[in-house]
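Appendix C: a fully annotated inverse folding record. The material below is reproduced so that readers can follow the format used throughout the book. The structure is listed first as tokens, followed by the designed sequence.
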């Protein structure tokens, strides 16, 4: 089941986010320390704003995906997505694809014309998923992040929602 996360999901969301950051730091912008330091009020505001959806298995949160629409008028046609994280035990069950489809449907219904994301160039499984879903690389951000003193590059990817996939 997929649904928008609410304040009642705060502890499960924080726990899954922390697990992901700890086990796969290159998949997240924030460090574990920054996740821990993120205040409850900020997270509650994010959840209250409907920015995060979750994938549930037997009522347990097993995956999440955030979407943030552009804030100013000239950016309202686009939304940034991510992070996307699925618990290792729930992988290969279609959770990531379902979360992405739900965000895409929500974005289209809201009149958003394109989705944008960043992904670590070395994260081959995520890159392959995004490509299968119709995202295309539009750029490279060298040294996008530095993890434990090591610079990492990100691919910038985009999916136009108002253009047929084979156009």
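Designed amino acids, in order:
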């Amino acid at each position: 089941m997929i649904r928008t996360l609410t304040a009642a999901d705060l502890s499960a969301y924080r726990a899954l986010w922390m697990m992901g950051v700890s086990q796969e730091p290159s998949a997240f912008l924030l460090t574990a320390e920054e996740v821990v330091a993120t205040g409850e009020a900020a997270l509650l505001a994010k959840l209250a704003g409907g920015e995060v959806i979750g994938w549930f298995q037997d009522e347990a949160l097993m995956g999440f995906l955030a979407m943030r629409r552009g804030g100013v008028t000239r950016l309202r046609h686009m939304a940034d997505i991510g992070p996307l994280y699925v618990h290792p035990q729930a992988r290969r069950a279609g959770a990531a694809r379902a979360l992405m489809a739900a965000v895409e449907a929500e974005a289209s219904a809201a009149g958003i014309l394109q989705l944008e994301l960043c992904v670590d160039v070395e994260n081959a499984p995520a890159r392959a998923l995004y490509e299968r879903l119709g995202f295309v690389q539009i750029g490279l951000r060298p040294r996008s992040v530095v993890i434990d003193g090591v610079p990492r590059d990100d691919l910038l990817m985009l999916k136009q929602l108002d253009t047929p996939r084979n156009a």
